[in-house]
Automatic annotation (TrEMBL):
Protein name: Uncharacterized protein
Domain of life: Eukaryota
Organism expressing this protein natively: Avena sativa
Length: 373
């Protein structure tokens, strides 16, 4: 394989699995979704949120998929479920906490979607495929395509405007994380400066999607930001050889690649503020992933992590997680990264706990509230 192809393969596999993150109350701008009761969760995103769509999509496109093999799922499910982790994702912890069923993957589940549907697919981009050079990836599963899937499902859930406002008014919508794959797919062919130029297009697409969901009746939104790409093991492995001095001597991360996520998150928060102005009845919460991952990288012991920049599963060399003879760490719960760019259940749990402080509805808090009235 040429260096470029190999690079693309690493990025793609790295991106095959995408997962998730959460909301520190500090980034909520005084907003919270608390004390609301949700009957369902609808989710759009990539491998950070995909609860089982990628096996369907990858099989349809004839792309090998390590995620369908053990040890994926080993911590919580005892079998691979299509999640890009050893166990539960942020969205799973949130569903469990809110008392809503684990959000069924829209392409893989044959049942009712009245309690929610997950349209997220590993490797999904925000921008449509036409933006990217011809190739096997990215697949035609962008945010815009996921919205079309939602719009096809909608008539099975509600009909009139009022009925839809009532139904989706009791739903929690997750829009993202989106952006990681747009940027990571671009790493082999674009400089950081060139990538920065299309961040506004990514943000505009996310913002338009939320607007469309509000028009469909959505009222409660959680919108996760980007991760620090420069702290992910595949990106460090790929780019630090060329310039070892680019590594931050404290964290071991690549500042240049982290700056993309910082820029994205800044523009995203500005866009959400504008949406709040336009739609005062909607609650739109920004959910921070970047800060949480940085905190884990900077203070691993606080989280019980022994090694934060090494993957738990995969390697040596070109072996992927799930390949015969690939490496598997002894304690996934002591790691931040599971495979290429995806986090372990342990990391997702910490992030979910924090996000939940902003999305909190639990019988206990509801009881407290009712006593105080
Ligand atoms: C979906 O469920 C229906 C009835 O519950 C069944 O007839 C059908 O074969 C199922 N389809 C798949 C793909 O499992
Ligand atoms: C992508 O999928 C959508 C919806 O399924 C379809 O309308 C569109 O034509 C597809 N685009 C490409 C480039 O295949
Ligand atoms: C290195 O990382 C630390 C901790 O995140 C940060 O405070 C510092 O500014 C970074 N150094 C450079 C040169 O970017
Ligand atoms: C917002 O909610 C109020 C009170 O329920 C309602 O009167 C108003 O029409 C709503 N505004 C929009 C733009 O939906």
């Amino acid at each position: 394989m040429s260096k470029l192809l190999r690079t693309v393969a690493i990025l793609l596999l790295g991106n095959l699995g995408w997962t998730w993150a959460l909301i520190p109350s500090s980034s909520l701008g005084g907003l919270s979704l608390s004390a609301r009761r949700y009957d369902s969760i609808f989710s759009f995103g990539d491998s950070l949120a995909d609860t089982g769509n990628n096996p369907v999509v990858f099989a349809e496109n004839g792309i090998p998929n390590p995620v369908t093999r053990t040890p994926y799922g080993c911590t919580s499910f005892g079998r691979p479920t299509g999640r890009n982790s050893d166990g539960r994702l942020i969205i799973d912890f949130i569903a469990q906490h809110l008392g809503v069923p684990l959000v069924p993957p829209s392409l893989a589940y044959n049942g009712s979607f009245r309690r929610g549907a997950n349209f997220a697919v590993g490797s999904a981009t925000t921008l449509d495929v036409a933006f990217f050079p011809d190739g096997k990836l990215p697949l035609n599963i962008s945010l815009g395509v996921q919205l079309e899937w939602f719009e096809s499902l909608k008539p099975s859930l509600c009909h009139t405007t009022q009925e839809c406002e009532e139904f989706f008014g009791r739903s929690l919508f997750f829009v993202g994380e989106f952006g990681v794959n747009d940027y990571h797919f671009s790493f082999p062919i674009k400089t950081v400066q060139e990538i920065m130029l299309f961040v506004p297009d990514v943000i505009g697409t996310i913002s338009t999607a939320i607007q469309r969901l509000i028009e469909h009746g959505g009222a409660s939104f959680v919108v996760p930001g980007m991760i620090p790409s420069g702290c992910t093991p595949p990106v460090i492995a790929m780019f630090s050889d060329a310039d070892p001095a680019a590594l931050n001597s404290t964290t071991g991360c690549l500042e240049d690649y982290n700056s993309i996520g910082m820029h994205h998150n800044l523009l995203l928060q500005e866009a959400l503020e504008k949406l709040r102005g336009k739609h005062p009845n909607a609650t739109i919460v920004y959910a921070d992933l970047f800060g949480h991952i940085m905190e884990m990288v900077e203070s691993p012991r606080k989280f019980g992590f022994e090694d934060v920049l090494a993957i738990c599963c995969g390697g040596p060399g070109k072996l992927y997680c799930g390949d015969d003879d690939s490496y598997l760490c002894e304690k996934p719960s002591a790691r931040l990264f599971w495979d290429g760019v995806h986090l372990t259940e342990a990391a997702y749990r910490y992030i979910a706990d924090d996000w939940l402080r902003s999305i909190d509805y639990s019988p206990a808090t509801a009881r407290e509230r009712s006593f105080s009235y």
